[in-house]
Amino acid sequence: MIRHSLNYVGWKERKAVAADLKSIYRAETAQAAALRLDEFEYKWGDKFPPIGQSWRRNWEQIIPFFAYPEAVRKIIYTTNAIESLNMSLRKIIKNRGHFPSDDAATKLLYLALRNVAKKWTKPPRPWKQALNQFAVLFQDRFPSSIY
Asked: What CA–CA distance (Å, rounded) separates 79 from 77?
């Protein structure tokens, strides 16, 4: 939602709008987030009406996010690792152009993933806290070999 929302904002106001959006998704509860969304719309609604409308339209998909503890939410909305991986895979495919078969594309992606994985030296900062929360929240789906 953040990236989508910032598509409507010019570069001069991007930081200010992003900071106000951050107050929404970093809110402690869904009710607090709704209040901050109201504040956001009061401040920016005249200038960027599609942003508030988009958040309101997708509110039912956003609310479950607030049921998780803060450490888990931070892992969920910190997507830099995922975006980095996607960028690496897109770069490999784009530079190659076309593939003679599906197997050729699969092999190239496999090799790219193997090379990218070598760069992963440490997990995201709040990972240990989130790991503990995942173990508590999803103990039936959590592998017992980890703890």
From this structure: 6
Token representation of residue 90: 């897109």
The rounded mean pLDDT for the chain is 84
Cα–chain center distance at 3? 9
Across residues 71-89, what is the average pLDDT? 75
Length of the chain: 147
At residue 56's C-alpha, the angle toward residues 52 and 58, to 5°, is 120
> What is the CB neighbour count within 10 angstroms for residue 55?
21
Rg (CA), the chain: 20
Tell me: the pLDDT tens digits for 12-41? 999 999 999 999 988 888 999 999 999 999
